Amino acid sequence: MLTEHLGEEAALFSFPFCNFLSGLSVMMSTSCCGTKKQKMNSGMACNGYHENRSAVTKEMCVYCFDVLYASLHNDSPPTPNFPNDSYPLFVTWQIGRDRRLRGCIGTFDSMDLHTGLKDYALTSAFRDRRFQPITRDEMPRLHLNVSLLTNFEPARDYRDWELGKHGIRIEFVCAGRRRTSTYLPEVAPDQGWDHVRTIDSLLNKGGWRGAITEEVRQSIKLIRYQSCKLGMGYDEYIEIVSQRRPN
Q1: What is the distance between the alpha carbons of residues 203 and 49, in angstroms, rounded to a whole number?
Q2: Based on the structure, what is the number of domains in the chain?
Q3: Are 232 and 141 part of one and the same domain?
Q4: Virtual torsion, Cα 233, 236, 237, 242, nearest 10 deg
Q5: Angle between the 58-72 and 234-244 helix axes, to the nearest 10 degrees?
Q6: Which of 21, 92, 134, 181 is the right S-S partner for 104, CB 3.0 to 4.6 Å?
Q7: How many angstroms separate the CA atoms of 3 and 225, rounded?
Q8: Does 11 reside within a domain?
Q9: 169 — phi, psi (to 5°)?
Q10: Is 1 inside any structural domain?
Q11: In sequence order, which residues have a C-beta less than 8 Å from that of residue 225 and are 6 or more positions away?
Q12: Are residues 239 and 123 part of one domain?
């Protein structure tokens, strides 16, 4: 399984549409949240308004914190307390009041959540090559987002997706090589981008180095998808864990 990291603005990965859910992990950018400083909502956001609004739960966020805490203290995490359904997913760590990206890695493989969240909570914390591994001292300032991805479908053209509803993954050819790049659904509206600016940003982050013309935009292949995201800060994590401890 290939694993790539979420960069400062976009995810870079490469695979054909027929295989995009069969064995490939993706690294995305800070800009799952973009480069502007944004006030992040810690509540649940189900982009695309699909009916399975209980897909992502607080228990999943608690488990990711448990996994990170256990790893930093050479301990074993508790058993996860949520259904072991299967989804493509991303785990994002942010730090500080301005929620600066601290690590973000995910997969377009459909993974059992017990394994997938454990693996990517640690991978995004320790193996995002743009950052030093997260340390014990940083934990009290961390914020976590868990995103579960759904409803993948090919678009008719580069404009065939809805801002704020769809995440997008584009594929294009540059210097004879197939390249791809992705943004989660919240990126474009957080940045104030329209369709053209979003596509142009993804092309640049995916490695396009020439002029971006309408012909270039029309040549890309685009997959749109939806996501359900839930955020949690360290203070909320500690509050939940303390309530579960026996008196």
Answers
A1: 27
A2: 2
A3: yes
A4: 160
A5: 90
A6: 92
A7: 20
A8: no
A9: -130, 125
A10: no
A11: 48, 149, 150, 151, 152, 153, 166, 167, 168, 169
A12: yes
SS3 call for 109: strand
**Domain membership of residue 185 as a residue range:** 153-225
DSSP character at residue 95: E
Angle at 36 between CA 135 and CA 59, to 5 degrees: 50
Spans of the chain, pLDDT less than 50:
1-42, 48-53
Contact 180, 15 (CB under 8 A): yes
Record the tokens describing residue 199, joined without a space: 């596509």
In a domain, 19, yes or no: no
Q: Name residue 163's beta-bridge partners.
A: none
Label residue 175 left, alpha or beta by phi (over 0 means left) and psi (-120 to 50 means alpha).
Answer: left
Q: Do 72 and 142 share a domain, yes or no?
A: yes
**Alpha carbon separation from 227 to 147, 233, 245 (Å, rounded):** 6, 20, 32
One domain for residues 65 and 115? yes
Give the integer Cα–Cα distance in Å for 121 and 106.
9
Count, residues in the chain:
247
* Judgement on whether residues 127 and 194 belong to the same structural domain of the protein: no
CATH number at residue 206: 3.30.1490.150
Q: Model's pTM, two decimal places?
A: 0.77
Query: What number of CA atoms fall less than 13 Å from residue 95's CA on the CB side?
Result: 16
Separation of alpha carbons 244 and 234, rounded Å: 16
46 bridge partner residues: 228
Residue 81 CB neighbours (<10 A) = 12
pLDDT single digits (tens) 32-78: 434 343 334 445 555 543 334 468 999 999 999 999 999 999 999 99
